[in-house]
Specification:
Helix content: 10-25%
Order of helices and strands: HEEEEEEEEEEHEEEEEH
Number of strands: 15
Largest sheet: 6 strands, antiparallel, barrel
Distance between the termini: 52 Å
Strand order of the largest sheet: 9-10-11-15-14-13
Low-confidence stretches: 1-26
Structural class: mainly beta
Radius of gyration: 16 Å
Number of domains: 2
Strand content: 25-35%
CATH class of the largest domain: Mainly Beta
Number of helices: 3
């Protein structure tokens, strides 16, 4: 019986992975907010459509999930900033992207997007602080995830920026829930009953604790399913790689 449960979970993981090139994750059970509360949040726009989120970490650089850039033609990619909506604001052209060299599947799911023109910071447009390399959030700590992802299982995207407060899930607990598929370069957050989660088209969006970018929406099994919290790229784990590339 245990073996059949494991096989079912792995099948779901495969299904979720196959959907990633079409977008990422959404805010499930969240509320509307405004960009002045989350001025580091950006929308990745591909040929006019919102596909993922990201976080400003430098005047000309954004962190996002690497899988957001799968099968992407950079000529069709822009960054929308300084707006609560999936319209308005400022559209920036993308100059280049830097994928983690060991990115594959769910592993090392992190990338840097470089914009052509540097951001001019204001109250509603700012970078976010990075965590220390040794940060390991305590289970139960309340973090914030934000984005413009789907409002229901198959869309549409949210028009207004949405947020949700999600508890950090103890690492060992999450590793057990995902049968060992959660590694040190990942962290988990979400309610055990699935009432608050991230899902389609929020991928790459920020998970923030104590005003620091601790995670990027990465993957999971379904959206808002009990005992399957959202899995995030663990930004602290990649701090050395980020510092070496943000020069």
């Amino acid at each position: 019986m245990l073996y059949s449960v494991v096989v079912s979970a792995l099948s779901l993981l495969t299904t979720v992975n196959s959907l990633y090139p079409e977008g990422g994750e959404r805010i499930f059970g969240g509320t509307e907010t405004t960009i002045d509360r989350f001025p580091y949040e950006v929308s990745l726009v591909y040929y006019g459509d919102h596909i993922c989120g990201g976080a400003i970490v430098k005047e000309n650089a954004i962190l996002t999930a690497a899988h957001c850039l799968d099968n992407i033609n950079l000529r069709g990619l822009k960054v929308r900033s300084n707006t609560t909506y999936t319209s308005e604001g400022t559209l920036s052209y993308v100059n280049n992207v830097t994928l983690h060299p060991s990115y594959v599947g769910n592993e090392n799911d992190i990338a840097i997007i470089w914009v052509e023109d540097s951001f001019i910071f204001t109250d509603s447009l700012r970078k976010i602080q990075l965590p220390e390399a040794d940060l390991d959030p305590v289970g139960g700590s309340l973090a914030m995830v934000s984005g413009w992802g789907f409002l229901s299982g198959h869309g549409p995207n949210a028009y207004l920026l949405r947020i949700a407060q999600v508890p950090i899930v103890d690492r060992k607990v999450c590793e057990d829930l995902y049968y060992g598929h959660v590694h040190k370069n990942m962290l988990c957050a979400g309610e055990s009953d699935g009432s608050v989660d991230a899902c389609n088209n929020d991928s790459g969006g920020p998970l923030v604790l104590d005003n620091k970018l601790i995670g990027l929406v990465s993957w999971g099994i379904g959206c808002g399913l009990p005992n399957y919290p959202g899995v995030y790229t663990n930004v602290a784990y990649f701090r050395d790689w980020i510092d070496k590339n943000l020069v």
